[in-house]
Amino acid sequence: MSQTRETGTLGKLMVLLDLVTHADTPLRFTDILARARQPRGTLHRQLSHLVEEGLLELDGDGRYAPGLRLLDFAARSWARNEFRLVAEPHLSELQQATGETVHLGVLRGQSIIYLDKVEGRQPVRMYSQIGNASPCYCTGVGKAALSLLPPETLVDLLAGLSFTSFTASTHASAETLAAEIREIAEQGYAFDREEHEAGIRCVAAPVWSEDRTFIGGISVTGPAYRLSMELLRQWAVPVQLAAARIMEGMRVRLGPRR
């Protein structure tokens, strides 16, 4: 998007949204000021409006990131996206093979946004919903997605994380998370060992598009009393195969963006 031609109010707001949503890490006011080339006072008012509307979020360190309302818009748009059509049969096949809930999510900033879900056949169901956001550092899909990031991007993202201890198993530091991410990158799959919700486990594999505009993952999720770690390790290969089929389908059907 050209920042010099967008002179109207809506155009200026779109420039700001474009800057923040395409940044690898949250931006400070001074970062946006240098890139947007707008007067300081005007920029401050526009950012405040975007935060008030939930399109951007401002954290305690003064950094701007995509807001959940903006991500909700993206998730709703995704429902009609060809990408979902490519993934859907493979998600359903994985759910039929395991009987458990299957998720597809995309990495956005420090969060995973769930874009699709195939509910399991078992009586105990998952709380997750399409469009919901979860922290990347304590979910299987999130950690699988993090394993795809370039080293410098991963370092910046980890440095900006604020770790919340959802359970006794949640990562409490960037150091321990980074060590696991390296392991995930080597083996090609990730586990959620009751890190986000007590009693919930999953195995996940990364999924990405050729141009890396989509970086995320798929997972099989269920209650710990049904999903032993041994069983999850057995399911790692089927999850990886489903991820590979989705990526191949995307390559054939959509092709790289020019």
Automatic annotation (TrEMBL):
Residues 69-252 form the IclR-ED domain. Keywords: DNA-binding, Transcription, Transcription regulation. PROSITE patterns: HTH_ICLR, ICLR_ED. It comes from the Bacteria. InterPro entries: GAF-like_dom_sf, HTH_MetabolicPath_Reg, Tscrpt_reg_IclR_C, Tscrpt_reg_IclR_N, WH-like_DNA-bd_sf, WH_DNA-bd_sf. SMART domains: HTH_ICLR. This is DNA-binding IclR family transcriptional regulator. It comes from Rhizobium aethiopicum.
